[in-house]
Amino acid sequence: MATVIVAGRHRGLKLQIPKGYFSKGSARDLRPTKAVVRKSVFQRLEPLEGKQVCDLYAGIGTLGIEALSRGADHVTFVENDRRAVSVLKQNLAMVKAEDQSTVTTTDVVSFLGATPRCFDVVLADPPYHSIEWVDLHPLVREVLAPGGLFIMELARSAPLPGGIDARAFGKTKVGLWRKAA
Fold first, then answer.
1. Which residues partner with 176 through β-bridges?
2. Are residues 48 and 20 in contact, defined by beta-carbon separation less than 8 angstroms?
3. Cβ atoms within 10 A of the Cβ of 46, count?
4. How far apart are CA 85 and CA 97, in angstroms?
5. What is the largest CA-CA distance in the chain?
6. What is residue 106's predicted lDDT score, i.e. its pLDDT?
7. pLDDT at residue 115, as a whole number
8. What is the pLDDT of residue 27?
9. For 21-51, what is the HEC assignment?
10. What angle separates helix 62-69 from helix 35-45, to the nearest 10 degrees?
11. Each residue's pLDDT tens digit in the chain (181 positions)?
12. Fold of the CATH domain 35-178
């Protein structure tokens, strides 16, 4: 399975993926964000020039590298799987984005509770059913800049509170919330 950057200066680039990483029955319920979902999400985000982005549950960096490819100023990647982090760093080296990125190897909840940073965009693609919107949203709200966007990929069956912009793509749903300016 190939994960390819959809648009921007790295369009068409195939990201490195650890062998067996997305196979059925793997230790974690991992799946790459589909290209159609990324395309839709990033159309809502553009332009990204000058933006500070946070990629939660970053995996191999697909969403964050897509953001960098489309002009984000800096991306902070948060991932606690060391094997994924190793490949994420290889992918960042491949696009020569080490100076535009920070990789944090920790769990997302701890990171959000401790970071002094503020982000224009927070992207979250947790393993399905591992955390719900209502649990993650209050933590993300604290690190979002005024007018910032929070976008989370979930299983289509996962609940979302009213007032959240939601889009469905097969078995996937994406929730989008903008913090008041």
1. 151, 165
2. no
3. 12
4. 15
5. 43
6. 97
7. 93
8. 45
9. CCCCCCCCCCCCCCHHHHHHHHHHHCCCECC
10. 50
11. 578 778 788 887 788 887 666 555 544 545 667 777 878 888 887 789 999 999 999 999 999 999 999 999 999 999 999 989 999 999 999 999 999 999 999 999 999 999 999 999 999 999 888 889 999 999 999 999 999 999 999 999 998 988 899 999 888 899 999 999 9
12. Rossmann fold (3.40.50)
Identity of residue 153: E
* Peptide bond before residue 47 is cis, with ω within 30 degrees of 0: yes
CB within 8 Å of 127: residues ≥ 6 apart:
28, 29, 30, 57
Q: Which helix (H) or strand (E) holds 54?
A: strand 52-56
Instruction: State which amino acid sits at residue 88.
Output: L
What span, in angstroms and rounded, lies between the C-alpha atoms of 28 and 142? 28
Residue 3: the pLDDT is: 83
Burial of 76 (0-12, 13-18, 19+ CB in 10 A): buried
d(C-alpha 79, C-alpha 82), whole Å:
8
Q: Is the dihedral of CA 36, 111, 29, 17 positive or negative?
A: positive
Residue type for 167, please?
R
Instruction: Delimit the domains of the chain by residue range.
Output: 35-178
